[in-house]
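Chain X:
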Amino acid sequence: MTLATYKPNAVAAASAVKPILSSSEYYDALTHAPDNNLHDIITAIGEPAIGESAIGEQAEDSLYPIDKLEAHVKDVPHVAVSIFIFHKNRLLLQRRAQTKYHSGGLWANTVCSHPRWQETVADCATRRLQEEIGLQCGLKRFGVIDYRAQVGELFENEQVHCYVGRCPGTDQDSTMPYFQKKSVPGDPVAKPVLLCNNPQVAFNPDEVMEVSWLTLEEIDAQIQATPEAFTEWFKIYMSSHRQMIYSALQDLSGDTCHEC
């Protein structure tokens, strides 16, 4: 199965060439972008302080608030969260909305976000899973990934706290995506709907264009075939931290999705 099976123009959209802008022009354009979270105050990481733990937690006096866009323009290290929701052995991928401030239209893991200043990483994970995907799942923290990557004119320089969860669903063929468009109760406009059990769960179209359930092996094949269709950080996760993600899947102990 390929991502293009149910979205033929996915790769074309993902690889579209963007105009070359100066840093100041790019910053100004982003400032007026429709991303509602563009100027969230997030948590920047300063010089490591005494008390920093071995698993990547930072001492409080090494953290400070910063505007999210500023952090990505100035390549400032900051705290982030990544979530991996599985159904059986399939990972839920999202394709980012085109209106995102970078990497719009590209595929990534279930949720990638940033804790607001003084928000815990666990609270952020729970909040953004609900806001982006519409799920309330038991989440288990399984590791920390530090990485840096350039994304267009911006930079991701992140200490990523990773969470895994399980969403039960129907026993459909693993080659079929759990995705269709339906009207959500109370809203006559057709929206993308993620199908688990009853009731149906609608993801947020302001954040996500579409979703897909793929095995790690299918993801490997897709990244090899069309790397331009995936975010830089997800390619790093799969190339350098795949075993940690696989181990997290193996260690899942029956956490369930309360909304499915």
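Chain Y:
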Amino acid sequence: MHRRGSRLGTVRLLLARARTARARTACARTACARTACAITACAVTACGDAPPPQAPAQAGLIVEAARGALQAPDTVRAGWTRVALAPSDARHIVVVFRLPGPMRDDTLTAWLAALDTLPVTPAPAVAMGGPEMGARNAVHISLTPGHYLLACVTRGDDGHRHAHGGEHRRLTVVGNADDTNGDTAARADSLVATQTLRLVDFAYVGPEQWTAGAHVVRLENTGAQDHQLRLVRLREGATVQAWMAADDPDTLATPVAGMARMGPGTVAYLPLTLEPGRYVAYCLVGDAASRRPHVELGMLRAIEVR
């Protein structure tokens, strides 16, 4: 099932936006790669395992994405935080990146240039996750006190990520690490995982059969690279093989939910509701060495919901 030839149609369409920039930014990639090497002088350790989050207040962290800008609070309290993207006419994927400390404007500019061209998250930042499929679903991320950057990694028609054009915003997290965003009533109910998926290089490890209904999926990146989760529901009569070989996979599946890229060692939670049917989980993050999307390296899993 994982032969490269059987998935070329799907991968071609899913990566069309990303590939439009290659011819225009070949030289920029080389320069930004050198910049990324310079930035790696500061090392960041990803957040380790963490207990299930307490349910935050309804507001959480709401991010509004518009052409050339992100709108969000400048400061939030530490703790498990519900991160959501406000509805928008355009497609946006906002990632929460943890920084080792305050980042100067010139350093941030260089880091954003590296993010625009490299397939991996440039050091010294760590990707913590975020809403992968726009306003379809919120995610829950553990934010410890420190400095963060919100950035849209969607590529526009010009081949550049939206963050390159201004869709990024600094975020400061204050308070104790065990603080929780929410009032007393919200903290009383724990957000307990009903399913767990481990993200490894290059596969999803977890059950192949799930029950229909509401779920909270715990995502653990135990691999050495960034990984994401994109989940689609196959249409009636469609098969995984047909979806993989399709020139237009959107005709055979409906997007359901997703978690944006998570760095090694991070944990996040994805609440979602599933109807009976067949689903496909896959990852489009690029491999650090080959630049091939992880789905081409086998990071794809069929899930049956009953």
